[in-house]
Amino acid sequence: MGKSFDPAKDIGSLDGKVILVTGGNAGLGKQTVAYLAAHSPTRIYLAARTESKARDAISDIKNSVPNACEIVFLPLDLTSFSSIADAASTFKSQESRLDILINNAGIMAPPYSTTKEGYEIQFGTNHMGHALLTKLLIPTMLDTAKQPGSDVRIVNLSSMGHQMPVSKGIEFDQQALEKESTWRRYGSSKLANILFARSLALEYPTITSVSLHPGVILTDLFDNLRTNIFMKVGLYIYGIIGMILPGHYQGPEGGALNTTWCATTAKDELESGAYYMPVGKKSSGSSFARDEGLRKKLWEYTEAELQKHGY
Ligand SMILES: NC(=O)c1ccc[n+]([C@@H]2O[C@H](COP(=O)([O-])OP(=O)(O)OC[C@H]3O[C@@H](n4cnc5c(N)ncnc54)[C@H](OP(=O)(O)O)[C@@H]3O)[C@@H](O)[C@H]2O)c1
After folding, report:
1. The domain spanning residue 51 has which CATH number?
2. Neighbour tally for 271: CB within 10 Å
3. Residue 274 lies in a domain
4. Is residue 44 part of a domain?
5. DSSP of the chain, one letter per residue?
6. Exposure of 300 by Cβ count < 10 A (0-12 exposed, 13-18 middle, 19+ buried)?
7. Does ligand 1 have an atom closer than 6 angstroms to the CB of 104?
8. What DSSP assignment string belongs to 154-171?
């Protein structure tokens, strides 16, 4: 059973903090922005692909959260390295600190395709895109971590689905991934989110880096599955399971709790590199999630790929 956590009462002061949430225009990301905005950070950057949805989300949050902090739309398409680089440089031109980076955006179970740089679309969006964004923002976060009283965090949204990856855990050959099922590709991308948070924790000890499963919540993430009546019934049952499983919640209000807890709970309650189930319950994850060789291989592969593209 996870911790009881009420964002209205349990979030401490976010005074002076600058926060960036990817995929903040919908689902869990939007709710996370709403929870955080109520606690007066200096600014929240809502990084998102679809501008109209981002503008609507900002106006919804401002209408529903009295005294919401400033929320700034930051254009970001995680399937394109140049878009990610533009987002990072826009951010850095406006801010000298970054206290909390929430790598929340994600896609699940689309048909095989690739990102602009040729990564399988789920691995490319969920892992490679966030890896580049994080890399470009790390210098700002390291500077922030040097400030007195700072508490800098990276929060990666993973999933229980990481337990169902391809047979090797992660397939680095992006073309070979076409033969795998879309679910296994999703599982591998979410496994990468856990392993990468562990690597960030080791590489950057002054930053607290964690990963998490948010729960089971019927958001737009499931759009690829609403293809026929059988899938719709299946999703309805999935929603009911979400209500029954302990620590799992129906609706973004519940689904954003674990992210918000990881981003705001007292630093000594968090273990850098750890993976959390809802809410705030440390979990070892799958055996692949604890595989030191795979963690190192993913880090080296990711660094080499980013360097190959000039980052
Ligand atoms: N919901 C669940 O039950 C569940 C369970 C386990 C894990 N998760 C994880 O939780 C995270 C949030 O999921 P959600 O349920 O809130 O899904 P969602 O409602 O579909 O929201 C996903 C967000 O990601 C953004 N996004 C997708 N592709 C992008 C791209 N190329 N560049 C920038 N942003 C992009 C979307 O923006 P646009 O709409 O503009 O494309 C949207 O804001 C994901 O990482 C997911 O894997 C969710």
Report:
1. 3.40.50.720
2. 12
3. yes
4. yes
5. ------HHHH----TT-EEEEETTTSHHHHHHHHHHHTT--SEEEEEES-HHHHHHHHHHHHHHSTT--EEEEEE--TT-HHHHHHHHHHHHHH-S---EEEE-----SPPS-B-TTS-BHHIIIIIIIHHHHHHHHHHHHHHHHTSTT---EEEEE--GGGGS-BTTB----TTGGGGS-HHHHHHHHHHHHHHHHHHHHHH-TTSEEEEE------SGGGGGGTTSHHHHHHHHHHHHHHHHSTT--SSHHHHTHHHHHHHHS-GGG--TT-EEETTTEEE---TGGG-HHHHHHHHHHHHHHHHHTT-
6. exposed
7. yes
8. EEEE--GGGGS-BTTB--
Active-site amino acid positions:
186, 190
Quick: pLDDT tens for 21-79.
Answer: 999 999 999 999 999 999 999 999 999 999 999 999 999 999 999 999 999 999 999 99
Ligand 1 center from residue 146 Cα (angstroms) = 32
**Does 187 contact ligand 1 (Cβ within 6 A)?**
no
What spatial distance separates the first Cα and last Cα of the chain, rounded to whole Å?
42
237: Cβ–Cβ under 8 A, 6 or more apart, which residues? none
Amino acid identity for residue 232 in this structure: K
* Count of C-beta atoms within a 10 Å radius of residue 290: 14
Domains: count for the chain: 1
Q: pLDDT (tens digit, 9 = 90+) per residue, 131-143?
A: 999 999 999 999 9
- Residue 263's domain comprises 8-216+258-308
Summarize the confidence of residues 203-231 as an average pLDDT.
85
Q: Per-residue confidence at 218, pLDDT binned at 50, 70, 90?
A: confident
Mutation test residue for ligand 1: of 219, 260, 275, the one with most atoms within 8 Å of CB: 219
Is 245 contained in some domain?
Answer: no
Instruction: Tell me whether residue 197 is in a domain.
Output: yes
